[in-house]
Amino acid sequence: MVQRLQGGSLTVPRDTKRVIALQEELHSHLPSDPALRVKTLESLLVEKGLLNSETVDRWIEVFREDVGPKNGARVVARAWTDPAFKQRLMTNASKAIVELGYPQLEAKNLIVVENTTQRHNLVVCTLCSCYPWALLGIPPPWYRSFEYRTRVVHDPRGILEEFGVALGDDVEIRVWDSTADVRYMVLPERPDGTEQLGEEELAALVSRNSMVGTAKVAAPTRAG
Amino acid sequence: MDGIHDMGGMHGFGRVDLSQDEPFSKANWRARMFGMELSYTQPGGFNVDWLRHVMECMPPALYLSSEYYDRWYWRDVGVLVNAGWVTIDELKSGKATRRPAGQDEPLSPESVPMILHQGLDNRRPEPRAPAYKPGDPVRAKTHGSPGATRLPGYLRGHVGVVEAYRGCFVLPDANAHGEERADPLYSVRFSAQELWGDVKSPGDLMLADLWESYLEPTNAGR
Fold it and tell me: What is the pLDDT of residue A224?
């Protein structure tokens, strides 16, 4: 199965059996230490003119500094305080996040699902680790773990208990498996006792896990 | 492909480890693997479905024993060696013996904000009206394609209900192997009762995004 791709003379074979054999071969010939292999790959690709190391640095800076759960938390806080924004978010989330200036990488087709007293949503990608990067950053290790990926679709309540979330039998659970290019973010319930808080203070309460559905947002603890 | 990656519903895995955190800095190999993946010139152009499939072709024991960004390494070297752009000897020595001809300059740091903001989109203009509408019962096909697919094994053969139509998207099964074809995509919901039988909370719901070619009417040929 050899396909000629548009826009160039490059022919790439895309055959499953061939790649299975190739993966076996790669594994048997290369050293075991991933840090060493990755370093060697980077210098090789630079030498071949296929990679600019400064671009790698830039991506790392962007995901360390600009992109992360603070973006999603701001979206949640806005939805809690601005009903018209919330409506736009629930109707077309990808468009609504652009309003706030947030990027769209891995959130181009974003759906926001709302947690209520009667319904609890949580998100997984059983086949790999699809996640709305632009709003939540890079998925945490637990999200990518085999334990979460295997178990959450058949024992969501057991998983939630491990995260400290106990739900009554009357609460409907919805587990969203991100099998395609749609990305999901949970709009958690606004905790009681936060009526006086502004958008920024609210955003500070919203945890990453609450936007994946493995936590609830806790009411602020009153100091003195 | 019924590979090791298709793990939804597998038994035998224990508690989720919530203690893990991982370093993400310019000096860390995991972060560099992440950044490299978004930066290197990909043979034949960026094709997420092919990338995923190449990872799915890892030896199952290696898939299970490699950490997350190491699986990215095996995927990307698989893509590069398969296309003939890199050899195994070069991966061992780190010394390039030749450069792939006719390639443009690699992605520059200045392009990063644009890609971040625009994102990549596999949605396509609709070629035809979707066959199903919200509320329709549908059965996930039992097809066991040996190539790329995004129909998880735990849903195959089961009956669900269309929750929403999401638009037409490039079909991974064809795209991974070099043919771009758009197909209507739906969120389909399945009850725990339907999927697992004897469970404590039969009313819990699992929803997945499934292309029209993964689905058939519930009265089809049974």
Answer: 43
CA-to-CA distance for A208 and A5, rounded, in angstroms? Answer: 40
- Taking a C-beta distance cutoff of 8 angstroms, is the pair A153, B184 a contact? no
Q: Helices A69-81 and A83-91 sit at what angle, rounded to 10 degrees?
A: 120
Nearest Cα residue to A76 out of A206, A169, A191, A181: A206
pLDDT above 90 coverage of chain B, percent: 86
Q: Which candidate, A149, A52, A135, A39, places its Cα nearest to that of B31?
A: A39
Q: Which residues of A touch B192 (CB under 8 A)?
A: 154
Contact B73 A37 (CB under 8 A): yes
Q: Extract the runs of DSSP E, i.e. beta strands, from chain A.
A: 2-4, 11-13, 110-114, 119-124, 172-177, 183-187
pTM attached to this predicted model: 0.95
How far, CA to CA in Å, does B28 sit from each of A35, A62, B112, B181, B190?
8, 15, 20, 38, 41
Catalytic annotation present for A125: yes
Per-residue pLDDT reduced to its tens digit, B179-214 = 999 999 999 999 999 999 988 899 999 999 999 999
pLDDT of residue B143: 77
Q: Which of A43, A53, A128, A145 is flagged as catalytic?
A: A128
Low-confidence ranges of chain A (pLDDT < 50): 1-9, 224
